[in-house]
Structure formats: structure tokens, C-alpha cells
């Protein structure tokens, strides 16, 4: 687990950078740069209080391992700097989830998937977050980011876009960072959902909540209670699924927050 960002400063642009699928590259832009581009993905750079320029370049979990070029762009689109990037295979494992018939057959609420997509696209230019981020609950990870999901033994065609943490029903869920609550709704598949925009490309989402402690439009601070653990939506037991987005792309929260995996469950005793 790497808890430090991959940071590119101006003095390091002559070196090859090695990152893993699902990570975020933090960029410090040179004077005159307004955007960064890699693998047909472009992200803006934002002015910080110290006068520097900061950008967050997500490396999607689905990015094929290999060599890429990272470019810093000026206002006219001209390339100011270029750096070679090697994307490593994260070797995400597979995980089979056993779903009951009623849960497996759940259909999204009207507008559910569209609202989630809209939340991921709409980003604030104001920065609310600071470091370090905090874990929303204290439980261990029962399902990590990036695992290839199977439902009842059949491939789902998707990967896990967040992490699942074990936590008892009713346990408070806290904001991983400061931000603005953009979503607080009960959905059929995602269950009780809170989405927070932390600004400048960073967002978090919290699923399967039993109830909310915030309303849409509320400004929250890091550690504020935003809801309570539940098992609503497509869920088999009380837990918290939460995800981290960089410019709408799911990235591994374990790069930002120290989280421990759950110990293997002891096998059930054999019947005599």
C-alpha cells in the first residue's frame, strides 16, 4: 500500500514515472501551464494559495499496462513539458458475491444511474479538501478497489469502483474531507447515497446508508457525520461502500487513506 501521492515537480520531468492502475498522479505544473494530458485524458490545473499549480491525473483501473506520455499544456494547447510514464499491472483479483434473488433482480430507480453520472461530471473549482483524508468508518476492508466482480459465479462485466468496509448497522459515517453535499438520496441499487464534491477534481461517494445526517447543498468539514451504515440497495449485509473519484474517474482510496484488509474468515466447522 502506498500512502503518498506520485508527485511530479518541475525538476523531475526528465525522469520516467512508474504508477499502478487505479492510482492518481499529482501534478505540479510549470508557469504557463493550464492543463495536463495523458492517454487522451485531459485535466485542468488549479492555482493554489502558495501560488503553485496543482492537477490530479487519474490512471483508470482499466488502463492497459504499458508506456504512456504525460504532457503539460499551455493556454494555446502547446506542449510545454513531456514525461514518460509506465503504468504497471495492479493484478486485481476476482471476487464472487452471492446475491439472493430479490437483491440480484433489483433495477435502478428512475434517474438513478443518470444522477450518479451527473454527480461525477460536475466539479467545483474551489478546493475544500486538505490532507490527510480520513476513513469514513474504522472497519477493515472486506472488498478492495479494483476486484473483478462475479455475482453468483457469473461475471458482472465490471470491477469494484470503491472499497467495502465492515461496520455495524447504525454506525456513523464521516466525510473523508471537507466539501459540498451534492447528493443525498435513497436509490434502489445504490441504496442510501451521499455524494460530496471536495473541489478541484476530488469527490467521494458513500453507499448503502440506512439514513442521512446531511441534506443536499450542505457544506461539511472533514470528519462530520453524513449518515449511518446500513444495508440498503444491492447489499447482502450492513457495511459501507465508499468510492473516491479524481475528475469523475474511480481511483483507489487506499492511496489516500490507510485502510487494513479484514483477516480471512475461519472456515465453517465440518459436520460430523
Description:
The chain has about 270 residues and is mainly beta. It folds into two domains: about 5-90, Immunoglobulin-like; about 95-255, Glucose Permease (Domain IIA). The chain is about 5% helix and about 45% strand. The chain has helices at about 100-105, 110-120; strands at about 5-10, 15-20, 25-30, 35-40, 40-45, 45, 55-60, 65-75, 80-90, 95, 140-145, 150, 155-160, 165, 170-175, 180-185, 190-200, 200-210, 210, 220, 225-230, 240-245, 250. The radius of gyration is 19 Å and the shape is globular.
Write the layout of secondary structure elements.
Blueprint: E1 6-8, E2 17-20, E3 24-28, E4 33-38, E5 41-44, E6 46-47, E7 53-58, E8 66-74, E9 79-88, E10 94-97, H1 101-104, H2 112-121, E11 141-143, E12 148-151, E13 154-159, E14 163-166, E15 172-174, E16 179-187, E17 191-199, E18 202-209, E19 211-212, E20 219-220, E21 225-228, E22 239-246, E23 249-251
Parallel strand pairs: 1-3, 2-9, 10-12
Antiparallel strand pairs: 3-7, 4-5, 4-8, 6-7, 8-9, 11-14, 12-13, 14-22, 15-21, 16-17, 16-20, 17-18, 18-22, 19-21, 22-23
